[in-house]
User: Fold PNPLA domain-containing protein from Cladophialophora psammophila CBS 110553.
Amino acid sequence: MSSSTGGNATSADRPLRLLSLGKALDLSLWQTLMLCPDGGGVKGLATLIMLQELFSPLRDGQGNAPLPWQYFDLIGGTSTGGLIAIMLGRLHMSIEDAIEAYKDLSGTIFAKKWWAGNKITRLIGGEAKQYAFSGEPIKQGVQDVLQKQGLDSDVALLELEESSCRTFVSAVNAVTTHAELLRTYRLNKPGQTHYPCTVWEAARATSAAPMYFEPIEIGAKIKTTFVDGGLRDNNPVGLVTAEAHRIWPGRKIGCLVSLGTGVTQPDSLSVTKSRLHEVLTTLASMTTDAHNRHLEFRNSEEGRGLLNDKKYFRFSPTQGFGQVSMEDFEKADSMVQFARDYVREHDDAFEHCMAVLGSLSTGM
Assistant:
């Protein structure tokens, strides 16, 4: 947890721990772990399955399985990865509960309109501002999850009491086209705007993909229109590391886990150079943006350092995911199997990551 007990190290001296088991420990043992799930529609289920595998051997001091919010200091997600960040970090849900909620949400959210199954009609619908899916089921679905967690359906994203786990989702300002962070905490830094909103509004903002969901306006007196954060950062690894340095300047990152949803090659479609073409090109780029962001970070000075120190882990399934579109919730069982196959095929990397996570519990 982010509270400090014992030791003489200052907050600037100790390594930034973006993952902890939520029990007091010697500050010299603190290590950091950040979690950043990619966007990817229903394929976000794979990130939860991989996280479940990583957490399976972990236990706290009483031998209980830890909850992610007790382990992480910072979780940042984009699009449906933002929904996962909210469930794990803001709502303090277990991974198992989040998996079931995610399956339910996917079936509710991606209930297609009659014309949404065809790419041509979907493009025409987007041009006419008729979106393939309604944003209302996202609102209702998230509100149902909130009520099951014993929270008000319009509870604020901002947590009243400071949590050991800070959480944000990214969304794109439709006017400036800049990525903005909707946070569960206040960050009093120049250029960092606080957007008062509810949990469901944040979920809508981060997942408002063009052609799929209508944009959302947030704010009372001054309204800001947001669209899907995946347009800028489908893989939020850069946003998460930058935010960590803003929150805890001078503290080191001990470990970073980035969970992807694979790379989908979009079907080709010949269209004229119009807004339709721009929208299609934008959506196609989102499928490769996540992997490119991983490569950019891996090749950066910070990324190389974390990689060389075995503190940066990137997991993203490939086999089978190229045939799954972002709205294919009917293929949930197949995605679970694909994700578990991926874990088995990369068991050495997962075991090493598990060992790093487990080492953080030493002395807890």
